Structure formats: structure tokens, C-alpha cells
Amino acid sequence: MLSANSVSGNDKSTKKGPQILAALAACMGAFGLGTVLGYSSPAMSQLRDHPDFGAFYENGTLIGEGVSWQPASWIGSLVALGALISGPVIGFCVEAFGRKTTIMALALPFVIGWMLITYAWNLQMIYAGRFVTGFCGGAFSLAAPVYIGETAEDSIRGLLGAGFNLMIAIGILFTYIVGIIAPWDWLAVICACSPMALVSLMMFAPESPRWLISQGKHIEAIESLRWLRGASSSQVVEEEFLAIQRSVDDSKLNSASLKDFTHPSILKPTLICMALMLFQQLSGVNAVIFYTTDIFTDAGSSLAPSMCTVIIGTVQVLASLVSSLLMDKAGRKVLLLFSDLVMSLFLVGLGFFFYLKEFNPEFAAQIGWLPLASLIAFIIAMSVGFGPIPWLMMGELLPPHVKGQASAMATSFNWLLAFLVTFFFEDVKQTVGSYSCYWAFAGICALGTVFVYIFVPETKGKSLDEIQKSFEKGNAKSRVMDA
């Protein structure tokens, strides 16, 4: 795809406002995902103490206190399991029905999931609601980046793509704040409003022009491009339309089967996306976030747990905002390297504190600030790089004719790892010690830094076609060397 500047030159009739609006509409799905991820933190303690669900009750009768509440791990991890299932389903839907249609269709089941939680009279209904909202949230994490990547100009694609992660962070913070005053059922009702806001905004945005062209809807594709570029006439976007059409035609000629995934021009970007997802989840971000309250307590903080989560949520939002502003200036690769390196260093610090806490508690008490500082630095580094960029690069690196299948695989892989880390972290921590877990996460982040430096290409300012051609050129060079 050509950039808007190459298409229209100095034509001032093109604008960025409409494509920003389209990206904002798609990012309401990210806000919804944020509410799903953030819900368990304020709601969990209320559910644990509830006569119908809690650990201390049997048939509504108080039976004791200090009981371990086993449903907690399921309430937290079922979201990831639902998101895992969404990958192949939504990968098919975005290709068969379109990006916009798929995003809008998710709103109804999303509301149904929240209503299951709102009107739950047993744990099974809460489980079902968490699974359904997780499915929809995971679906947005696949469909929205693809839509944004295909509707944004090259010059602001990174900014708009990073907006997805920013909206997740805002959704999490929103849930933390509202959860301070709203009970668990009313919190679910409030969270159910975000899918309705998504539909209201998405109604005004057009379908992806690339998908429309792939369906032979050329007139609609030109109108979509004209709307997105704020162009005064279809002639302004004609050259870009022709470039997309050539790319789509090439994709159809090279329609992918399972065997085609072994071709280097497809295999390499797919493996890069999968590896970025692996390093994102095995950095331990979900484990660190899940035990935020424990870390604040160990730091000797006098703040209430609810305020602790709000502080972390605020830090995450501010860091995500900085990331969105830097994405098209510093570049993806630089931010990934910075992110993994800083996360590794501060995970070592976090592990060091817990090691001292076990073997030298007197000295650990003197550096109670260390876990708090490490956690804040970790969240900032994650939000600047490895939080948003793997999702953004999934929309940039994958070839158009396999984007649906490959995105589905990468998304499912990401959520599978999220489920495993969330569900088993506590058991592993009890077995080997929390310091060993954090040091293991630090080692994985260090490996991720090396991987990014060697294998991940810079995509800043490049069109989607230029990115694909770079993989093809690399393959051509290797064939020449082999010859």
C-alpha cells in the first residue's frame, strides 16, 4: 500500500481525522478487553466473601474463615481460555465477513457475557460470563489491529496501533476506579456499556478497503478510502486504490494452504509474531499484575489494596500514552529492545528482594522501596514496548493472504501462554520460591532482547507492501547464496 503522501503529494484535501476516528471506534474493543482484564481485581474479594459464592460459606451459612478459595484461579484464567478459543473462529470471520462486520457482531455476545455475571446465582454462571467476555476480548485483540493496520496511513499506523494498548490500559484503570465504589454486579453492568459504545462509533466507520477489494467491491473500496483519507474526490485516492488492488491480486494468486506456511516469506514473519507473543507472556506480566497487592504489602505500603491497583493502572495508562507518541518516532525495534532490557533488570531486582525477604529479612526490611520501584519500572517498560508492539507488528508483518490464519495462530498462542502462566504461577511459586520465578522471567526477557536485536525488522514508516517485499528480498538473497 502506498502512503498517503506518495498518493496525493501536497494535496491538502486529505486528512488524518477520519482514520483516527475509525481507529478509535475499533479501539473501543480494546477498552472492553481492558474492563474484562481489570474486573477480577476489585470483584474478587467481594465474590469470595459473598454467601452464594465465597470460600467461607456453604449453602449460605458461614462455616469458617481463612479457607483457600479455589474458584479464584478459574475466575482469573477463564478469560484467557475464552480468548484462546476465539483465535481460529475470529481468524475465519475477519476473512469471510469483513473486519468491521466482525468487530460489530462481537458486541452482542459481549453484553450477554456481562449479563451472565450480573445476574449470576451460582459460580457456574460467573465462569460462563468470564469465558464469554474473554472470548470477545480476545477476538477484539485479533480483529482490531488488523482493521487499524489496513485503514491507517503509513505515517501514523504505529501511533494508531499503539492506541489499542492504550485503550486496554484505560479500560483496566476505569474498572479499578469504578470498582472502588460499585459492587461486583453493578460493575459488570457498567462494563457492559462499552460494547454498545463500540457499535455506536463503528457504525460511522467504513469497512477495510483491502478487504472490500478482495471481495470485488471496488466502488465501496474507493468510497472507503475517500472517507478514511478525508479526500475531496475519488481521484485523490485512485493511485492508492490501484496499489492495494495489485497487492490483493498478488495475494489471491498466492493463496495459502497449510503447506505454504513452510515457505520462508510466510514462515519467517509468522515465527517472528509467534516469538514476540511468547516473550510478551513469558515476561511474567500477568503474574506480576495478578500479585500486585502482595508486592505493595511486602513493600510496607500503608495504602489500601484498591488504591495500589489504581496507582499501577495510572502508571500503565501514562506509559501507554508515551508509547503511542513514540511509536512512529523511535521505531518499533528500539522500543522492544528498551522494553525487554528494562523489564529484565527490574525483574532481577524484584527477585532479589524476595530472596532477601526469605534469607535475610532484616536487610529486606531496609529496602522495602525496591519491590514498589521495580514493579512501577516493569509496568512502564512493558507498556512502552512489549505490551502494544507484538499486536501492532502482527498486523504489519503477516502477508495479507495468510493474515487471517496466521493472526489466529499467534493470538491463540498468546492466550494459551497467558492461561498457563495465570493458572499455574501460584503453584510454581510455592514449589521453587517467588524469587526463582522472577529471575526466570528476567532470563526470558534477556533472551527476548537478543531475539529482537537479531531477527525483528524495523517497520516504522514502511508500507505494508514494503514490509512484505523485504522478506521476499531476504529469501532471494539466500537463494543466490545457495546457488
Low-pLDDT parts are: 1-12, 56-68, 476-483
Number of strands: 2
The CATH topology of the largest domain is: Growth Hormone, Chain: A
Strand content: under 5%
Structural class: mainly alpha
By CATH, the superfamily of the largest domain comes out as MFS general substrate transporter like domains
| Secondary-structure element series | HHEEHHHHHHHHHHHHHHHHHHHHH
* CATH C-level class of the largest domain: Mainly Alpha
Q: How would you describe the shape?
A: globular
What does this molecule look like?
The chain is mainly α. It folds into two domains: 414 residues, MFS general substrate transporter like domains (Growth Hormone, Chain: A, Up-down Bundle), CATH 1.20.1250.20; 48 residues. 78% of the residues lie in helices and 1% in strands. Strands 1-2 form a two-stranded antiparallel sheet. A hairpin with a 2-residue loop joins β1 and β2. α2 runs parallel beside α7. The two termini are 32 Å apart. The N terminus and C terminus are likely disordered. InterPro entries: MFS_dom, MFS_ERD6/Tret1-like, MFS_sugar_transport-like, MFS_Trehalose_Transporter, Sugar/inositol_transpt, Sugar_transporter_CS. Keywords: Cell membrane, Glycoprotein, Membrane, Transmembrane, Transmembrane helix, Transport. Pfam families: Sugar_tr. GO terms for molecular function: sugar transmembrane transporter activity. Belongs to the major facilitator superfamily. Sugar transporter (TC 2.A.1.1) family. Trehalose transporter subfamily.
